[in-house]
Amino acid sequence: MAGKTTKDMTNGSPIRLILGFAVPLLFGMLFQQFYSMVDTIIVGKHLGVDALAGVGSTGSINFMVLGFCNGVCSGFAIPVAQSFGAGDYRGMRRYVTNSVWLAGGFALLMTVVVCILCRPILHWMNTPEDIFELAYDYIFVIFLGIPAMVLYNLLAGIIRSLGDSKTPVLFLILAACLNIGLDIFMIDVLKMGVGGAAWATVLSQLISGLCCLVFMVKNFEILHPKKDEWKLDGRIVQKLCNMGIPMGLQYSITAIGSVVLQTSVNTLGSASVAAMTAAGRINGLTCCPFDALGSTMATYSGQNLGAKKLDRVKKGLFQAAVLGSVYAVAACIVLSLFGRQIALLFVESEESAILDSAQLCMRIVSSFYILLCLVNTVRFSIQGLGYSRLAVLAGICEMFGRAGVAFLLVPPFGFAGACFAGPAAWVLADAFLVPAFFHCVKELQAQFDRNADAG
């Protein structure tokens, strides 16, 4: 039976359940962003603008590779949520064990491939020569840590799929505090440069993943598999891959547009790269509520699909979108007024050109946050309903949006043109996702009706 650490999201007020799940998840995501921000602040303040630009120039390729791994792990958790919502605990455990085998294989393969290709990729991206080695030193270590990142994201996703969004946050808080100490120790004491910041992140992620593992073993009795449930099952593997790979590809395809954009920004020089890095870190932090709402809707939709309550899915999505839109307006006001002051966290006050560019980027991007809110809530709802492949098409829309800006706006308008990449991606993605969601609900309802008639 389900224990006190699980949460049933198929009954009760949708907005209360969504908020109760999303708020702890938000804190977890804030602390994940805190990893990146601490690295960036310490690198920028302690090692200089070139080091800041070196770390920042790897952001898009980092997102493409790690985003694929994160997406796969998130996809693996969806059948777990659906089985939990349907009360099929044996099936749920088989999904968990099979996802462990698959995630381990993906992590090993990805680590070997990207570490071998790391240097060529940076050359293909036109990384400026004055920051090339700094970029390589940072991203190579991050890629070595892919297994640690997969460990945390897989186990945290499984824990959340059972309705517990609080526990992973506690472990991230611990890891974030450790990350700060390791950053300072490795950069200032051991003099490891940007590589030290990367090692601090990897070690912190490993610890948070191990904490999730210990917690699951001790507190989730319904997840304790019997010996025969550890066997690979072709049908289960196929469903997990059908969920996980499209979600991973969605992130990677989206990131291809970011890579193209980053390549274009790299041609503008290290100052533009540094400004985009500072603005990107701040935008990443302020966008955490949209990510939290999105991840919440995946679990919420998955559980309610298992319980065959599609009306609750629609009602929950609407309320989540309204909530996110209110926050979007508030965040836009704050960044428009105080973006330059916030950017001082990353660069010194005498770097006025970089600060001005960072503030411009934040003003432009935050003006379109409502569109991003829709992208996250609708896309993850679709994924929770089992239509992960549609998310790939949305990722293609985002890719074309960012790549189009890189080719059409950056050459004539420079840095200002690059700032419109995110908004262009969100416009195209929303144009696809909103009608796609209603198509999914209609198709599922027809399927339920047919099954009821047949029964």
Give the beta-strand count: 0
Number of helices: 18
Proportion of strand residues: under 5%
Oligomer: single chain
Bin the helical content: over 70%
Specify the structural class.
Answer: mainly alpha
Give the N-to-C terminal Cα separation. Answer: 27 Å
The H/E string reads HHHHHHHHHHHHHHHHHH
Largest sheet: none
The dominant shape is globular
| Count of the separate structural domains | 1
Radius of gyration over all CA atoms, rounded: 21 Å
Give the averaged pLDDT, no decimals: 84
Instruction: Report the uncertain regions.
Output: none
Textual characterization of the structure:
By secondary structure, this protein is mostly helical. It has one domain (14-454). It contains 18 helices and no strands. The protein is globular and about 70 Å long.
Offer a quick outline of the entry:
With 455 residues, this protein is an all-alpha fold. The chain has one domain.
Keywords:
single chain, 455 residues
Question: Topology of this protein?
Answer:
Layout: H1 14-47, H2 49-56, H3 59-86, H4 89-124, H5 132-144, H6 146-161, H7 167-189, H8 193-219, H9 234-266, H10 270-286, H11 288-306, H12 310-343, H13 352-366, H14 369-384, H15 388-408, H16 410-413, H17 415-418, H18 421-454
